[in-house]
Amino acid sequence: MLDVVVLFFLFGLLAGLVRSELKLPPALYDTLSLFLLLAIGLKGGVGLAQQSLLPLLPQLALVILLGVVQTLLGFAVLRLKMNRVDAAATAAHYGSVSVATFAVGVNWLTERGISFESQLSIFLAVMEIPAILVGIVLARGISRETRWRMLAHETFLGKGVTLLLGGMAIGYLAGPDGIAPLKPLFVDLFKGALALFLLEMGLIVARQCQDLRRHGLFLLGFALLMPLASAGLGLAAGQLMGLSLGGLTLLTTLAASASYIAVPATMRIAVPQANPGLSLSAVLGVTFPFNIMLGIPLYHSWARHFTE
Prior knowledge:
By secondary structure, this protein is mainly α. 78% of the residues lie in helices and 0% in strands. The chain has 15 helices and no strands.
């Protein structure tokens, strides 16, 4: 049975496909994004306050490597049909991660009482960055014209990374007792905010589905098969880390997800000649719906197979 938040996504998707006049105010969408990022960051920070940070360094190195390998793999496949710039930009989307998919994964595990390691929130923030840098190098190479200062600012201080790291810092410094008064807002209302966010995502996906038709079967196949390949890589990385069932499921979900916020914003600056319609139609038209409706239960079954 589908989770209620996924039903909100399907409602938005159906409303968009039948060309309903349903729209959420842009300010509400931005507010929900901010809320979800802060809530995830706070929860991760509280968990980190209860453990040592030094053992996490090898794990962080491994997830950085995971993002690089995913981007290179995606680029190699996409170059079979795309020019270098579009292949690099699209591969960067698939080497990075989606906070919305992560939030659905967190909710899916929480509803079933499955715990997971708190450092997964750090992995979410860290895994956005390597794919962006690798994608830029693949598309443009390194030259004197590269505006590294602007790119670094957009990559490391973008809204998503800043909110996640800021929320984790607050949660870490305040600890469980300090965050307790905020529980009614950031914990009890999390699922409701996620439902509204996915309603808007359904409306957005409906628009991208129309663009996907123009890009052919190759892009459709890539958008379905690349998440599965990335999930396999994430599963292997999680096993090397010795993650629990919940942690392994969530890391596999993260690896299978694809960015539609941080990477497009950075690629517009770094590689303006790339066609954003290719990547966004694949990510939002195919990969995101697949992951939240079918992928997360599938990745959990894979993780359970390797942890039992």
